[in-house]
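User: Hello! I'm new to structural biology and keep hearing that structure can be predicted from sequence alone. Could you demonstrate with Putative Zinc-type alcohol dehydrogenase-like protein? Please show me the input and the output so I can see what each looks like.

Assistant: Of course. The first part below is the input, the amino acid sequence of Putative Zinc-type alcohol dehydrogenase-like protein. The second part is the output, the predicted structure written as tokens.
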Amino acid sequence: MTTKTLTIQKVDGKPGQVYYPLKLNTIPTPQPQPGELQIRILSAALNHRDFFLRQHLYPSPSFTTPLLADGTGLVVALGPNTSQSWLGKRVLLTPGRGWDASPSGPEERYAILGGTSGGVALAVLQFAVALGMNVWVSSGSKEKIEKARGMGAKGGVCYKDEGWEKELKGLLPKERGWFDCIVDGAGGNVVSKAVKLLKPGGVIVQYGMTVSPKMDWSMAAVLNNIELRGTTMGSRQEFRDMVAFVREKQITPVVSRVVKGGLENIEAIDGLFEDIRKGGGDGGE
């Protein structure tokens, strides 16, 4: 038996300038080992990580490891010493491996969410609203700010506007003119903006750095006891808790566009990458 995988093909080019083409491969179907499951993929999500890999913006990109990380599937075969209860179950796929548990993240009341078009940002917005938090957003598109308001955000500002942080602070209640945390995936000058917006001891949660792989840290942030907390995915326990929370709150993920036809429809898949390149769409692809 064989299966299809989607990888990137190596071509010459410098990081940030190269754009590796997609390659469809046919390989022998791997057999599950002890304690493992064989899963038929039913749907897979395209992440900015995959887009960055095609531009060599991640170190040491693999040209043999399949693209796409998150998804859903059906358990179709079991390895030795694996519980029969798994067979036929629908499962969620997460790229975290060997990470069993870790401390919980911050629980805050007033939050700023940077960017409202990526899947992570929209999921954060949905989770925060479901927790009863007051969320304001920044975006490069006024249309996307309105969409975020429709999803429960209190309001937002366009980060392309000069002095947007002053405008954002002006949206807060007079008796409560500061934020508890900022959740951001861009980086750039977020620290210099944060010291004007966060309470003393406030938290910046950084899940990505799409503007630049480096950020400045200022003495003003030190004097305000600002905490910068990096985050990537999470432990398996956190993933279980998240799935239970989504089920409890009946949260539906935001999906911008779906293409069908499997991996053979490589032209349409390439079109999803173009959506990301142009900054179009909302949520997962």
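User: So the tokens describe the shape?

Assistant: Right, they're a compact way of writing down the 3D structure. Reading them back into a model, for example: The radius of gyration is 21 Å.
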